[in-house]
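If you are new to this repository, start here. Below is one unmodified record pulled from the training split, so you can see the exact layout before writing a loader.
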Amino acid sequence: MPRGENVLAELPADSATFAGNRAVGRIELSVGAEVRGNRRRRVCEAGSLRVRFPNVAPGGPLEAVIINTAGGMTGGDRFDLDFEVGANARLTVGTAAAEKIYRSLGPDTVVNVRLTVGVGATLAWLPQETILFDRMRLRRTIEADLAPDAQLIIAEMLVFGRSAMGEMVERGQLFDRWRIRAGGALVFAESLRLDGAIAESLARRAAAGGGCAIASVLKFPASETDIAAVRQQQSTFAGEVGISCFNGLALARLVAGEGAALRRDLIGLLTALGDMPLPRLWLN
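And here is the target side for that same chain:
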């Protein structure tokens, strides 16, 4: 058999069966600004991932909705998402539902996100929450390359267990890596790692203070005006919300006791930041 023709055939029978049943998905999307508004230029879908485009108000940003037909992810699954926004175009990306990361028997669940935002373009990356199950293993990377005058907002929610059903994440592994570059210069770099006794780590006051739902929001460019707008809403937040400005960007952290409260706080924070409308599925 020629090399590379059938990789699964080179694995032990049990490994080949496992690999053959793993979900692999890819989306590549590029959009551009035209006289008629923001339009798709290239759409590529593979595996269990799909992207759909609901109708939006004339003159508004193009809205893309990611759909995972696999119904969740587990160890050995891999998703790659590549979104490019051309000069002066506007794009909002969301998901059709919360993503679920189930228990792994050993391998990592891998998610790679690459965002490219051109001159004068705007991208809002606003997926619904990611729900993590006990003994999950998630490795996620988010990389964004921006033109110097591009605009970007990223909001990511992580919910550790379904608290309404009495579930929690006692143990597991999470590695979340963000890298944001503007004009080729690195303006934000962060790596979050939770390994082993996750519930014990989240219970620490310096971590989540017992909260089981966390979120990070990054806006570029940003100013003290953005910070002031969010701080004016402090009395309306159910959980803890902090925001600061540095390197020309704003970074907010949110912690709540359960996913629904986190979602409400995040909607309030994003509304205060303005600029881009929320995906309609967030508000249904």
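Two things worth knowing about this chain: The longest strand covers residues 185-196. The CA atoms of residues 145 and 184 lie 7 Å apart.
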